[in-house]
């Protein structure tokens, strides 16, 4: 069984790391001009997660004080870590896919790859983000009770 203080501290630590990773990915995604529709939806999902993480950041004092149960803290820590890894991996792939586009409109080959061949990676990331959002909502609801 994990020490509650250590788990609380690890949640707070991974929260900052995950928020940073999502911000970096969001910056890359929002800079894509003429992006496929799927990327547009990803922008919205990332913005929602950023907002939720910022809300969670406001209740970190409750995490420190162990107001949130150990089970919720563990689930939150795991979910945030997975979201962080998924965002970083997708950001690497996205940068590779946009190699022809630079800062301008998306090159048709990059657009085709991102929209068609990148579907699997995009769906995986969106699933991770949805799981992360659900866990954050549960944790903040628990903290606010």
TrEMBL record:
InterPro entries: PigL_N. Pfam families: PigL_N. The chain crosses the membrane at residues 6-26. The keyword Magnesium does not apply. Keywords: Coiled coil, Membrane, Transmembrane, Transmembrane helix. It comes from the Eukaryota. Residues 2-145 form the Azaphilone pigments biosynthesis cluster protein L N-terminal domain. Residues 39-73 form a coiled coil. The keyword Transmembrane applies. This is Azaphilone pigments biosynthesis cluster protein L N-terminal domain-containing protein. It comes from Corynespora cassiicola Philippines.
């Amino acid at each position: 069984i994990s020490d509650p203080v250590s788990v609380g501290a690890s949640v707070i630590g991974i929260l900052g790391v995950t928020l940073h990773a999502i911000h970096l990915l969001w910056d890359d995604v929002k800079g894509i001009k003429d992006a496929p529709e799927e990327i547009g939806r990803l922008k919205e999902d990332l913005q929602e997660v950023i907002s939720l993480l910022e809300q969670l950041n406001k209740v970190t004092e409750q995490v420190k004080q162990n107001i949130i149960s150990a089970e919720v803290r563990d689930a939150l820590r795991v979910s945030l870590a997975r979201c962080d890894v998924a965002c970083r991996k997708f950001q690497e792939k996205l940068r590779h896919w946009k190699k022809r586009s630079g800062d301008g409109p998306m090159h048709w080959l990059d657009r085709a790859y991102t929209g068609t061949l990148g579907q699997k990676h995009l769906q995986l990331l969106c699933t991770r983000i949805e799981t992360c959002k659900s866990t954050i909502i549960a944790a903040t609801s628990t903290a606010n009770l």
